[in-house]
TrEMBL record:
Coiled coil: none
UniProt signal peptide: 1-20
Domain of life: Eukaryota
PANTHER family according to UniProt: C-TYPE LECTIN DOMAIN-CONTAINING PROTEIN 180, RH26557P
InterPro entries: C-type_lectin-like, C-type_lectin-like/link_sf, C-type_lectin/matrix_domain, CTDL_fold
Domain C-type lectin: residue ranges: 28-121
Annotated protein name in UniProt: C-type lectin domain-containing protein
Gene source species: Cherax quadricarinatus (Australian red claw crayfish)
Pfam family, one: Lectin_C
Alphabetic keyword roster: Signal
Amino acid sequence: MNLLCVSLLVLVAVITGTLGCPSDFLGISSSCVKVVIAAGIGERPVSWKVAREGCKALGADLAVMNVSSKVEHISAHIDKVFPNEASYTFWVGGHKVNGQWKWVTDQTINLKSNLWVPNTPKKDDRISFALLVPADSLHGRRYLNENGEGGWAPGYICEI
């Protein structure tokens, strides 16, 4: 098979989401993600640590949301597949380690990116974790926000 054919197959796989992802995961770019609704209306939400354990039980970890295209794709997926949960917040793989924001992959998080809710995260040493929060009407996608230790969210996003 020549390089052009291989390139076309990879392009089709990326577009169609067939990246060899498990059937309950969605192929986005070069990763597989799963949106998990952990608590319905009136049910108890989960902590970041419980969400991470849930992802690990699936052979994954909390998602790294470091590019806007990934946030946009996941936002559109949530809106389409979970319309009743559009106002939900979702744990993702960001956390503050010794005052530094890192992804669960140990990559440093860009605090100046437009992925964050304006004026966040705060520069302090308290323990915090990253959430993907509902879209605003202006931009139509979700944003990263921070929540302190002891915070809760009804959903989380896993990534392989």
